[in-house]
Amino acid sequence: MGEPVAAQLTIESFPASGAVDTGPWPAGPAKGIGALEGPVWTDTGAVVFVAMDHGFLYQWNPDGEVTLFAVPGGGPNGLAIGAHGDVYVAQNGGHGGASRRWPGITGGVQIVSPDGRVSWLTQDPVAPNDLCFGPDGMLYVTDPTRSPARDDSRIWRCDPATGESEIVATPRWYANGIGFYDDALYVANTFERTIMRYAWRPGERLGAPEEFARLDRGLPDGFAFDQEGMLVIAAIGEGGAPGDLPVVAPSGQVIERLSVGSGREYTNVAVAADGRLAVTDASEGRLLIAAGRPAGGAPLHRPNPG
User: Fold this and answer.
1) CB 143, CB 153: distance < 8 Å
2) Burial of 271 (0-12, 13-18, 19+ CB in 10 A)
3) Does residue 15 have a cis peptide bond before it, meaning omega lies within 30 degrees of 0?
4) What does each of the 306 residues of the chain score in pLDDT, given as a tens digit?
């Protein structure tokens, strides 16, 4: 196999300095508007994303304006789009480096309505990282143990109608990004630089996963599929090196590495229907928008109508 192709993307960076006025910031580790994560494209062509350390959700609008969307508090992490414009939030409870205390905010899954109201779906998960809907309309959530003394996780299945939650797998590694493609469940095993794949059957626990892809450098975080089954991964740089976006073919081979700048912590990526990429850069506090894929994003599952 040949070496992956390196490609430099044309990037727009948001917000411009001073574009978001939400009052004085607490001290935080990131520049810009915070340690960003969890981008999702909405049905209106906007992007909703989080500032983990500030406890905020933002919305980037197609005209380039970035506005405050909601204040779930704690440490909002991954996001998923639900029915009727609702946004589901993997709330880590502040375990991901929150820069202020939020009394009463624990780990779990929150729901943010289109008008910004925040409610709880479940508080069973301990410190969720990412989440997605499956073919069964259920919500699947990664819940890694955030301690240097342990390196294990839980994967939860949550009913979006009732909040009832159950553990369907207990991997002994740090489960991070999560997503479905062709009725298989993919999970990032961050510290072993791999993407793991689970066979999936409705209503059943997950069995043992298989290794789908392995990176030779960079730590895989969030990811997204395009319509051709290409997997685009947000990879965090190691040893001070910039991060990038490895692209993995359906065979599991890394065929391309997309450069989006000098940031070290590209935490997640979402692919729009027209192929544009939305990338969160936690090290610089920027949302990056780029024309990246010839194929648009793979359709995402939603909760069952109810």
Assistant:
1) yes
2) buried
3) yes
4) 456 645 555 555 555 433 333 333 333 333 578 899 999 999 999 999 999 999 999 999 988 888 899 999 999 999 999 988 999 999 999 876 665 677 778 999 999 999 999 999 999 999 999 999 999 999 999 999 876 656 789 999 999 999 999 999 999 999 999 999 999 999 999 999 999 999 999 999 999 999 999 999 999 999 999 999 999 999 999 998 999 999 999 999 999 999 888 889 999 999 999 999 999 999 988 999 988 778 899 999 999 876
CA 191/CA 238 separation, integer angstroms: 11
Place of tokens 């740090």: 174
Nearest to 90 by CA among 203, 179, 22, 23: 179
AA identity, residue 98: A
Ramachandran area for residue 74 (φ above 0: left; ψ -120 to 50: alpha; else beta): left
Contact predicate 296/227, CB 8 Å: yes
Q: How far apart are the first and last CA of the chain?
A: 48
How far is 183 from 252, CA to CA, in rounded Å? 16
